[in-house]
Amino acid sequence: xxxxFSFIRKYCIKVDYSKYSLDELLEAKKSIDKVKYVENxxxxxxxxxxxxTEINARKSEAKSAITAKQVVLxxxxxxxRILGLFLFGLIFGFPVGFSIVPDTLDGSDVFFLxx
Length: 115
Description:
By secondary structure, this protein is mostly helical. About 65% of the residues lie in helices and about 0% in strands.
């Protein structure tokens, strides 16, 4: 009798996929044995076709979320950018350059070329 019960449970249980959430349906699709459980797989595919609008809505939400998170980098070389970099260097470079006294240079700040 136990073998008969396991056979019935293994091969004859029909699953009601209409009560599954979309995440549960996706998990069931990944884990179902298509050859062993043909009827359940067909029922699962029918449920997917019924929920096509819900699946498409979730896909469009995911695409819009990905698009919103993408950072657009602008790497243009305009005259304003070049002028801004020049002024930045001018404003912050002069105080550093004028704060160095030439008599105090001891050679530790000179770069050596090694061959």
